[in-house]
Amino acid sequence: MIPDPSVKYRAFPPVHLPDRTWPDRTLTQAPIWCSVDLRDGNQALAVPMNVSQKLEMFDALVKCGFKEIEVGFPAASNTEFAFNRRLIEEKRIPDDVTIQVLVQAREDLIERTVESLLGARRVIIHLYNSTSPAQRRVVFGKSKEEIITIARQGAQLIKDRLSRLESTGTEVLLQYSPESFSATEMEFAREICEAVMEVWQPTPQRKMILNLPDTVEVAMPNVYADQIEWMCRNLKNRESVIISLHTHNDRGTGVAATELGLLAGADRVEGTLFGNGERTGNLDIVTVAMNCYMHGIAPGLDFSHINALAEMYHRTTGMTVPPRQPYAGELVFTAFSGSHQDAIKKGLAERDAGKAPPHWDVPYLTIDPADLGREYREVIRVNSQSGKGGVAFMLESEFGIDLPKDLQREFGPLANDAVDRLGREVSGSELKDMFWKEYVTRSAPWQLGHFHADGVDGVFHCRSSARHGGQEVHLTGTGNGPIAAFVQALIAAGAPVFEVGDFKQHALSAGSTASAISYLKISLPDGTARWGAGVDTNIELASIKAVLSAVNRLG
Asked: Which of 95, 278, 446, 523 is most deeply buried (CB count within 10 A of its CB)?
């Protein structure tokens, strides 16, 4: 990097729009969506999709609810052409889905494109040519007037062939893109768009699509929004066009540019699943659709099984969804931070108890993971950064182990220390093993042999045995309950003097072989306190084992 980047780079000039209105608008409905995975996404792959992979993705896009799908550039290769023909001849395109094809303003390419569409029910022919100063100077070496001539001629070549398509029952919608629109002078962008409109003659009843791409992000997203609003205001016959957005992510703000562009008056959005595309990628259409959803706007797209969609994406493209990708990433509904885990756990508990507000309002979760086919157990995971809340949530959600609050405060740091030594994330099973080792399976210095207690009129007598220091010890004691009698017997046999404080127990599983778990806290006269836990199919024995667990943990 150079010390003074202004020597080499310059800020993109703003659009003069002092009375812009888009900042005061609010989205109230979803746009028209068009997937360009099979073209823009495909051309960005090191190994492009074959026909069978494109068919699988096409079917998945239809299942998601896309009504417009750009299926390719049929004049680019035999594979692209064959894919078009297979879709049409095998009648794989649902009646409510329109396929879109891309073509440059060249006669041979337009002719081949039209041939690929014969017999289709409804299609969008997408014509484009580049318009920015850099493209005009470096690539084409042509003036503005010559660039407009290219666009006009391309539009006319398509128009001349519409009757061939219409004679086979094909309904055609026309689309034009001034490629590199966002880097093009506004007046010239309007001029070339209006030149194409003059050829195609759209009407409010038979509109054309005017796609205004942010082909390469060269400015902040608010500038793109100004460009869109400027075009919407100044374009002749605005009511006869559908304004479409097609953003890329070079500055990392493709989603923001699209959302602001919609506020600025656009009607339609082109993008790809998970943002696959050239350089830093196309717009992630899943993110924009789910952003609508989280604000209560029905997006018209269904991502209820987003994990399966991500697997299809990987299978067909070879690409993976980054773990932090909004909504779809493995970790986006995951909390490692202890305070976050605790807040999520309490928010979910509030909903389960029926005490939550009518609208979703769970801390740190913008939407309900279940709406995307994700499970709550994915939300909280445990590593060395996690706290007692995350530990407790995982034990309860995976194994039904409902730790008392005070026991959470005792076991949480112990678990975190163990995880810190491992230096990695731990599974629920590993966490359970830690708890069992620390509490349930402790057998030294005291190990229960047998236990029996009976009582009359609130007085219980305990007759038990245990091993202590390798020797069998007979335990007898009296108390106002089985636990009290056993405590008195332990103390009489040489255990430290202690009292039982907090106590809780619950079933771990259902059925005739169900186990119970008991949690019990003991306190010594000097204030020392320890929790214990015991598990048994007999509730009373589980409590007695919890007493020994706590005593053994005194050290």
From this structure: 446
